[in-house]
Amino acid sequence: MNIDRKLETIRIINNVLLVSLVFSVVVMCFQITTFNMAFLGSLPVVIFLLLSEAVRRRVQNLIAFLLMHLLGAALPIYVAYVMDLRYYAGREFGGIYVSNVMLSLRILTAVIIVLLAIYSRVEDKDRFYPEISEAFVFFALFALSLITHQKLVLAPILIGEVVWAVLCMLFYNLKQTNNALVIWKNKDYVPYDAIGNNNRLMMGASIAISLICIAVGIFFDYGKEILSAIKRGLVTALRWLFSHFQFEETIEYEDPVSEPMSGGRLGGLIPPAKPDTSIWHTLWNVLFWIVAAVVTVFIIYLVIIGIREFYRFFNSKGMGLKDKLHRDKREFLSPIRKEENAFETKPGRITLRKRLTPEGRIRYMFVKYIKKSTDASSILGSDTPMQMESKTHNTTAASTLYEKARYSTEPITKQDLDTMKNLSRS
Q: Residues 146, 151, 157, 159: what is their CA dihedral angle, to the nearest 10 degrees?
């Protein structure tokens, strides 16, 4: 396996680690489900992440790219939802069924994965190598566990951080090795096999020493939490094992059902609840639905705009998105002709900030001066400012001031402004 494939493998493992860990820790911190089911609930988004990696690498067309992501997310998420309906039957979290909460979290994670896939495809940048900057993810998860007082989350965070640390060491080692050997590529006298063997030996020793130091440091700080997590794992495994044996017949007891008291005491004094039919309740409902409709329309508009922009840039080749956004404009001499670039066409309006400067005021007054003329219809888009003024006013005084304001480095004086005002008012 060459270095590029090793780096790609490390990147995919790192992405799987981040997605599964963040999803599981968030679910456990908010006590949505149990410890084990949190990790099982992250499997559908991990499967979708692997499918997204394959689609991003092989599919080129934007429409096919989005459809493949939609189908790839629908299957594992739907299967997980059907299983959740059986396992979480009747369970609620904040008044909402747990199965619906898990479905919403998986859909949100899938949307984030798709957006990152589109971004990495447009920018031609893979997501995400195990770099030092990702340590802030573990800091955020650790802070979330402290805020929510969930000590059960510390063990998976620490284990994930250890795995991430090993991936970091492998990534930086392979990256530096690749950079060092690239200048000697395809040279017969370079002992590649010996360099690779020595590198693997030293890297294995470094990882072993680092893991020992990490384990000692973790047990000094979080030994109790880790041992309790191991104890819970062993107890869970033993309970699952012995659940297959029937030692004695379970005796079921019937609890007597107590009928609700009618009348008597305070129950008879509390009037039955009636639906609110006041005008304020009706107005509140109408206002709520109006706001919901406006927000929905706005979100749909943003989605349409985003799809249009992505479709414009997605399939173009030879230039990156930053190069396209910073490409030089083609600007015409005509102050009325539109300014264009290779990707969009917008009117060449003078911004408010420029209009407040003396140069901008002269340019703005010149445009009004030309447009209000009765012969303005004879102006061509290719005419220069001097030709425009010659056709409409048979003079070149205003166009001289316009060219000075637009192209010259000489400052605009008060006399220049007064002259242009008088010409524009004539």
A: 150
